[in-house]
Records
---
Amino acid sequence: MRANTIRKRLADGKTVINGWLSIGSGYSAEGIGHSGAHAVTVDLQHGMLDFSMALHMLQAISATPAMPLVRVPSLDPPKIMQLLDAGAYGVICPMISSPEETREFVAACRYPPQGNRSFGPSRGLLYGGGDYVAKANETVMAIPMIETAEAVERIDEILDVPGIDMVYIGPNDLAFELDGGVSVPRTKSEAALDAVLKAATKRGIPCGIFCSGAEEANKRIAQGFCLVTPGNDFAHLTRSMKEAVAQLVAEDERGDAGLERTATNGY
Ligand code: 3PY
Ligand code: MG
């Protein structure tokens, strides 16, 4: 089976940079897959896309060196299994709050006897290879999201569930829960996510986190996170376009870009 290179990076103590796709497009998925990111996550929770678009995006990511991950909308075993069948090498599941939910989630990601994933590997065979079914359990990753107050309280019980490959923190939902909003400072949720990071690290379970961009991602790496998501595709697209426009407007205000001249020339 095709190796899961992010498992190897994590085992070697290396950081994983994870792209995040909210735009439903195979073309932009392929572009982000070629960005140098080690993994790329198709976001079916908050992304503007559905299963049929996610399938095309997973196919596009397959043409790149990045490992294909998905974030599912919720703890929905049939949906999780279908996305694994579509070739996802890891599933990030939001709002996991208890050991019971964790067990249900991990079971959906594993074929029997470790779990209850149903047989029907479909595209997993095309992307993973002919031995997909035999090797899937040790290759695909089950990644619960920790982003509720209950999950923070019960983190040791959650981490005790066998088969968790990583935990992923949703800092914004955690801020809603613990700080009453997403503005800064986020005193309580920052302390909580640091405690989760330490609890996971102590057990050798890697911890990932969503970040606003590269600057925050660098700080999170220094804090001890093993996987960072430096903002989503839409944020990068709009940020860089705004910067380009701002630069052109600034040049025009200095009188050296000729925006008006371009307009009157009819281009
Ligand atoms: C959160 O910050 O809550 C997230 O889920 C990020 O994707
Ligand atoms: Mg969230």
---
Amino acid sequence: MTVPADKELPKPSNFLRQVIERDLEQGTYAQRRWGGSPGDAANHLAGEPDPARIRTRFPPEPNGYLHVGHAKSICLNFGLAREYGGVCHMRFDDTNPEKEDVEYVNSILDAVQWLGFSWDANGTSHLYHASDYFDFMYRAAEYLIEAGLAYVDEQSAEEMRVNRGDFGKPGVDSPFRSRSIDENLQRFRDMRDGKLPDGAAVLRAKIDMASPNINMRDPALYRIRRATHHNTGDKWCIYPMYTYAHPIEDALENITHSLCTLEFEDQRPFYDWLLDALGEGGLTNQPHPRQYEFARLNLTYVITSKRKLKQLVDEKHVSGWDDPRMPTIVGLRRRGYTPESLQLFCERIGVTKSDSWIDYSTLEQALRDDLDPKAARGMAVLDPLKLVITNWDAVMGAGALDDCSAPVHPHQPERGRREFKFGRELWIERTDYEEVPPKGYNRLFPGNKVRLKYGYVIECKGATKDANGNVTEVQAELIPDTKSGTPGSDKVKVKGVITWVAAADGVPAEVRMYDRLFSVPQPGTGDKDFLEEINPDSLRVVTAYVEPSLAHAKGDDRFQFERHGYFVADRVEHREGKPVFNRVAGMKDSWGK
Ligand code: ATP
Ligand code: MG
């Protein structure tokens, strides 16, 4: 089957798209109403038919910077909502009473927007905080107690652990499990009112201590913890457990499809148990949200653990969260990745239900495919060696400079041309000269002719060396009437074409040649400390010469340096007149080599 070239290929289906399409077709959520803001069943019942066909959410804990794994979750949740006429909620999962850092909150909002998504829909900002639901969570807990579905357990932590059993051994009922509803209610209120010390009791769901799924063996719902919460202050000394809080957050927000990573698969029965109970009790909207698990992103040569990334920053193995070698969104952005390239990457890796490692080259290829049609071209010499045209003065006149130009983009003539000079002295790559050429080498060696791209054909005459035998200068003669783009310019046939920058108008630039931060494909997974797996050569800084068009770049401008790959003007340190570039990726995949 052939596809017409002008037709955009349909996005490949995946199991999540299938689930959503099935729900839309069957009208699973079609009857639901939306109260205009998150709330209980009554709130939503009083509202209008839900204008969102589906609701998803992205629920980070504000305890670190987002990384490329989160980008997958963001693209998935916001992307699916956009695709199916839905809404994706931006929710801070701040039920842990640890200090919320504004720095993290802001960086998370920034990252989502930079990736190209928004939580505004139909004039409403769907930015929510889980801690705003504490009152409801408490009410729901009392309801569960009253329904005989929860009890206050005062076993010690150790007793609870032992009595939970394990995979081969069913659990044992707590002696507190058969307390009366009234006693449970009283003890739970005592917990809330600060009458019990931290750790003295927990509220547990009453499900089944013999369940083969350990998560269903009376999971904890609330614990006592005297801690000041950034949002609710000292109002609470009991806090909900994540497994209890998360389904409730989803239900209050009318989420339809709650997407999470595979490690939560065993939690799904409890998710459904809880929302069935609260739904039947009339507390939360029905039909309730459903949880679907997908494989988390593992990327080779990359660490995606927040804790380890923080350690890299805190211990100064990198320059900060936005170090261009970091897999954080701010790091990838500074490295030169575009939002579109990350979206493309996420689309290509797709979603599956089994964990695997994605090769880093997949990320780089998405960058190349995004930038190839967009990035302006430019010439840069990264390892400069002086080339002198010995017959220049005789042929062109002493001190003469010749005007050369090249297309900004080879396939987009409408973008115009870049101008630069050709002169007696030029910069070429050190590797473009060999005194004794290896087999198949077509560049400069004594007696060989090459074309200086967009310039002239030259014939190499020799080179000068220093006392250590290092080449300090190459000499060549220009062959007249061979300038690119002039009639007869190809009368002299050459096998090699090299890039260059004239000494007269080339501008020195700091170029940061980044490489993988870790030298093993699956860092942090073996016996070794991940810090010992850091690549000692992940950054090489060179002083390059760049053509004038590159020197006039603005921070964040991206280019293809011809022959070398993709580079970005560093968004933090690049200045007009003092250019700083980061290498994003080479021209071709070099990861396997
Ligand atoms: P923590 O260990 O601090 O809980 P986390 O990686 O789970 O870290 P969250 O802030 O809780 O971070 O994650 C927000 C969302 O991003 C969650 O829905 C989570 O499933 C998703 N997510 C996190 N890491 C990845 C990953 N590597 N691949 C795909 N999704 C991820
Ligand atoms: Mg988490």
